[in-house]
């Protein structure tokens, strides 16, 4: 019988060896043990937990299964299932970009101490479609949102600035830019419930999965009274005609939006027409401070300032990428979160 503990990972030679003609069941169990799950970004417990099987020799073990005719197994179906599982284990070891599609569960803390559970589908990644995966800064931001939304200054709908109308306020209008799989926007929707509506946006090729993820979580969204819509909003396209005052948004959210030299300008130029001019309007962002992209973070800061926005609150925190580095260690990522408001009423 194969068994492993977190303290004592197995050696590949502890797994059933092909020369022994192991049963299909034993091979399926061994391949399940070799499954690499994505990390959960933030928990050090997961980061220190090692693999069930030591990595040395695993690739050779998997390729030997794929290239074996497995002639001693009873059925073609069993052989196919084992080859497929071995191929999947092999692609998991080729990094996230080679991973098959998967559904992942995310827990979003609420201010009452309860946690909301979101299920997000992540299709297999292709090089250009970074929005098919959930990134570490959106995980951190989703866990911080309940605090951000409550800490002063309150994010309140512009319609409620008159105290006499605050009881009949219109819902806060929120927009997420580059929403990807939708973790931040869907968390915001569930946390805000009836008091906000949110429009989750991204490029055309990303939006179908985004809409799928909104549908996957419809039960939670209905329970909390949230209103979520999804659609295309390409930062490189200037809206025409420009949004009216009613069409602008009280809150704009963006997680991990800068990974090309053109992004700081595109993003700030998109915030400009879409952010409400109310004094409570806010932009909430979180992004990794990766060395290669620091100039873009600086440019984003500068351009936001030039637009008339200033940081209301900001901070740094560390998360862990959900895929391990080549040496098997967890990749710590420093992230910067920030909340911006107008320096003066525009
Ligand atoms: C690194 S991903 C982050 C996704 C998600 N916010 C997260 O943190 O998990 C960057 C996102 O920005 C989107 N994006 C890039 N360029 C864009 C553009 N010109 N217009 C709209 N979205 C864009 C990508 O499609 C992708 O979903």
UniProtKB/TrEMBL annotation:
InterPro entries in the record: Methyltransf_16, SAM-dependent_MTases_sf
Pfam assignment, any one: Methyltransf_16
A single GO molecular function term of this UniProt record: S-adenosylmethionine-dependent methyltransferase activity
Top-rank taxon, per record: Eukaryota
Entry's Gene Ontology cellular component terms: cytosol
PANTHER family hit by this protein: HEPATOCELLULAR CARCINOMA-ASSOCIATED ANTIGEN, PROTEIN-LYSINE N-METHYLTRANSFERASE EFM2
Name the UniProt record assigns to this protein: Glucose-inducible SAM-dependent methyltransferase Rrg1
Source organism of the structure: Penicillium arizonense
Lineage: Eukaryota, Fungi, Dikarya, Ascomycota, Pezizomycotina
């Amino acid at each position: 019988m194969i068994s492993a503990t977190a303290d004592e990972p197995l050696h590949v030679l502890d797994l059933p060896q092909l020369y022994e003609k192991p049963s299909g069941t034993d091979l399926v169990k061994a391949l399940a043990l070799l499954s690499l799950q994505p990390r959960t970004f933030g928990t050090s417990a997961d980061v220190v937990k090692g693999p069930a099987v030591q990595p040395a020799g695993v690739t050779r073990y998997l390729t030997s299964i794929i290239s074996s005719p497995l002639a001693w197994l009873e059925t073609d179906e069993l052989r196919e299932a084992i080859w497929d599982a071995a191929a999947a284990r092999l692609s998991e070891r080729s990094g996230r970009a080679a991973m098959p599609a998967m559904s992942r569960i995310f827990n979003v803390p609420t201010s009452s101490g309860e946690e909301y559970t979101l299920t997000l589908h992540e299709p297999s990644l292709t090089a250009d479609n970074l929005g098919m995966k959930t990134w570490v800064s959106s995980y951190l931001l989703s866990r911080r949102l309940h605090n951000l939304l409550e800490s002063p200054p309150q994010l309140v709908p512009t319609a409620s600035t008159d105290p006499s109308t605050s009881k009949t306020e219109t819902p806060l209008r929120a927009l997420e830019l580059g929403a990807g799989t939708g973790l931040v926007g869907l968390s915001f929707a569930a946390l805000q419930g009836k008091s906000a509506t949110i429009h989750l946006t991204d490029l055309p090729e990303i939006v179908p999965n985004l809409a799928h993820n909104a549908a996957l979580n419809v039960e939670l969204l209905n329970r909390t009274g949230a209103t979520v819509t999804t659609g295309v909003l390409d930062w490189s396209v200037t809206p025409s005609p420009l949004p009216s005052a009613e069409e602008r948004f009280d809150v704009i959210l963006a997680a991990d939006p800068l990974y090309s030299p053109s992004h700081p300008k595109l993003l700030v130029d998109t915030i400009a027409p879409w952010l409400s001019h109310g004094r409570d309007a806010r932009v909430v962002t979180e992004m990794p401070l990766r060395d290669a992209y620091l100039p873009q973070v600086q440019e984003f800061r500068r351009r936001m300032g030039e637009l008339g926005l200033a940081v209301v609150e900001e901070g740094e925190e560390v998360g862990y990428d959900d895929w391990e580095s080549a040496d098997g260690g967890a990749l710590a990522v420093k992230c910067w979160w920030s909340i911006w408001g107008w320096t003066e009423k525009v």
